[in-house]
What does this fold into?
Amino acid sequence: MSADQPKPTKEHFEVDSALLSEIGEKLVTTPHVALAELVKNAYDADATEVRVTIATDQKGMPTVEVRDNGHGMTMEAVRRYWMRIGTTNKIDDDVSPKFGRRRTGAKGIGRFACRRLGRVLEIETCALLPKGQRSETGEKFERTKMVFPWDEFQPGSMVSSIEVIATTERLAKAETGLRLSISVAKDDEWSYRGYAYLKRQLAALCANQGGRRKGYDDDPGFRVFLVAPELQGEGETEDLREQLTNAGWGTLTARIANNGHAVCELVAKGLGKRRITSTRKFNYLTDVQLRLAIFVIGEKEWLRDKSVVSLGNIRDFCEDWGGVQVRYRGFRVYPYGDVEDDWLGIEMDRARRLAKPGDDEVFDYAQALDGVNPSRAMLNMLSMKSYLGAVEIGPKQDDLDPKADRMGFVENAAYRELRGFVRFAIDWAMVLRDYAVQLEESKRRDALRRRLEVEHGRKLSPDGSADDAIKTLRYAVQKVAEYVPAKEKKNLELLADATAYLESTLKVTTRDLSRLRLVASASTLTLLFAHEIKGLTSTFASIGKAITHAARTLPAASGKRLIQLGHEVAESERNLSELLELTNSMGVLDRDARPIRIDLKDAASRAVKRFERVKTRYSIEIDASAIPEGLQVGPMLEGELLAILINVLSNSIKSVIAAGGHRMIALKAERVGKHVRLDVLDSGLGIDTDYFEEVFTPMISDPSGTLYDRLQKRLNPEDTLLLGSGTGLGLSIVRGILQARNGNAALVAPTADWKFHLQLDLP
Amino acid sequence: MKTKLLIWWIDDERDRLTPAAQRAIEKPTHPSLNHRRAHLELKHVGTDVETKAIVSEMVEAAKVKQLPDIVVIDQILNVKSSDGAVERGSSLAVRLRVQGPSVPFVGVTGVPFERIASLQKNQFIELFSRDAVHKGDCIPDLFAIADGFATAIKASFKLTGKATHRKKLIDLLDAPEEDAELLYPCIPGAFQCRWDDETPHAFARWIWHFLMGRPGFLYDDLEAATLVGLNENGLERIAAQLRGCEYDGVFASVSRRRWWVSKVRSKVRDLTGADASEPLWLLGRRIAKNQRKLFSRCYGGTSTDAPNVVAFADDSLRKRVQTRIQDSAPLDADTPPLGFEQRRIFSGK
It folds into this structure.
């Protein structure tokens, strides 16, 4: 190296104090955000409790104190993390050291956010010293006090040049934690709106009501107490956990009274306070109390206190903390209430779409509520995540035995009762939730009705019928018509036509619905009847066997008649069993049924068999041989296919009996494109082409008016019931089912050999 | 094998088992059971008699060594347990089995099987329909389960888990020599170790529902008929010549006839003297004297060749048909255990 060359020097970056303002005041826009950041720091420091006090000094300016019971900091930690700008410890360690909490703050801005709150920051912190640094005299805690005079960090000065005075002392006994005291505020920026923001932020942290993470200590939960005399009442402390519990749709509490009955109370939006005492006694339970906050995730209108929770943070904290926990003598019992746990069977019941309350008493309660359908009251049951709270089991409770591995209780009678008690309370609350929804809807309708009556002078009936709505709509159209310019008349006509169409559709739907309600009730009765008759068929079977068995012991001549009788009984039993099996397959109440592929020939032969008796009595020939073996239809419900076949066969049978002569019905099938075409042909009365569409209209059973008159003449009176008098729904049901499965039903002109030809396109 | 069985019948309705059905069980008329008798003890549970009384009775019976040979329990017991939930027969079976692990438990129900959860079904060796009980169709099975279970329990004391003792397990099944080696890896490990109180029940279910319940080592009549190119009538026609090929091991039941596939193969070749190059279906037909009406045929006329598999006719799983493998598809969600065939479904036309 030559002597002329300049000597290199080592240079360093220095940080101007102006940076603190950039990452403090400017990044944190309001004091509420600043304070929320400080509390998040406490959460990250494994605190279980934080007290925040917002008071005023003698000059009337706000002062803030944040006091937590977290792990605190030693002087070394203060130097390494608190006083070093841009440390990445929260990013490197994304969970807290003791409880393994997912850290909530990661930008490291909390400490500088203090600047937003006041010009003087005083820190007092106490922490447990690392083992190697503890003194031999037993002093294992270190308490540090520091004062940060922010005003001295002026732009133009280097951050590192400003001295911050710290004092430390070592103690044998102490509580760990941190106290931040912020004073000398520049402005009073606090507002009620900002205060609500602060509460929402902090309340979401309070949803942590305790949990366990692998490799860490049990987390007992996090609570925030807020004291702000200027913003709330004098002397009041806001327990944010408590406020959170009372902010959702409802708060459910339940306990076991001295007499062993469960006493449940629900305070909920739209309902006020409701109470029930179970008639059932819980013999094993004594010292058990339930308290749950109930949130309707994703529905803002069901919040009772929007200043504490927002729609967004409900979703987040319910996802993380939702569930019904169990606390046994103050300690949480795992895994009850964990994310994947379903100890109450709520998710299972939701998965199988349980509609009816399992408890008779809850069912009866639902029955008494106006507008609630007790058989469907549980359909909108909220998920396990929607509940936030716990069952507290006190010291007087015996019989509940924790398992040896401390994971849950032994499944004994007391535990089953505990589960039954909690489900009773929740199911009851869910019935009331259904009721609240109905009430809310009626209220909305009433308000609209009143508005229409008061502001628009329309008189409407209180039951809010759809007819009224249509009439009002028509009235509105007429009113608008008076002022609409001529060139807009076309649009007005469209509106008038749409109203008329709506009215007509409504009429048809209402009429169909009332008939279908009756049909559905009849179907339920049929299933009940089928169930009852099942026992009878079994008796038939054993009688048949006994007769045949006895006949074998008799001489051949006298035994022969008995054997024949035995066969007849057995045959009746077989027919009855097949009929019952068919009824079961068509059961409308079978919610588990799923669309499947079905062998058409097999299904047709089962359907034809149902008419065996009438076939023989009226000499009807039903030929299904032209359905190819192995031809499958579907996917569709088995009950749907059977309903189609029974309906079309029943129609044809009635028609061929009415027509007389050679009574023939044929079923033919072939694959046509993506459908299977089933042709139903008969030698009955036939239908005039004018009525080809009309027969598919619900309630029109005999468009030409000849079928039932003739049928009456030819049918034996006892068979009238067998074939029915015609609801006029048969072919409409057939077409409805097929169209819902992308198929169709249509009448076509029959060829010379036949009088009737129905063409079905099956999926 | 005991000539007279003691059967406990637990029901919540006193008169549901008709006198005729009771007689049919106590004095079975099936020709294979004409020397067998049973004594039925009807145990009623209901609001006045709690299930715990039955459990205590089982404890007492175990003490005096008078345990029943088989217990039949109604699955839908209209009995409420202390938490208000309706107690099912399957739960009672679990409680009783703790007291009497050497007793087999079967269930009976009037509701469709598909509406009963598998966990509940699994607590019984078999769940019978009420119809099967009243018609007497299940009686041979009841005797077979009671006999099989007693044999298994007796043999279990010799099963020490050592490899040399595995043969005793194979002996229980009366398996042909050529199947024995294949069977070892297919028998669940739990049965090849020393048995505990739960093992006999699990073993019985494995035999009943796997070994005898699905194609693999054993075939039922329709599957065996398909193997030898015949329909079921055809198989019946040559059954006498195939004598000795039926499964005769533990739990064998006359109403659930099964055939050792390996034995049928070698027997058919022995009977015809044919070598391995000739297809089995041709040989079976030859034994049936080539009568066309006894021949198997492909369902739906899908093929002119002889069918080679049995498949369900459609998704309702109600009817089984003979078909070709290419005209059928594996049944979704059916994963056969090692050594067993996959169930199939006819693919349609």
Observations:
- Residues 323 and 338 of chain A are 7 Å apart (CA to CA).
- The first helix of chain A runs from residue 18 to 26.
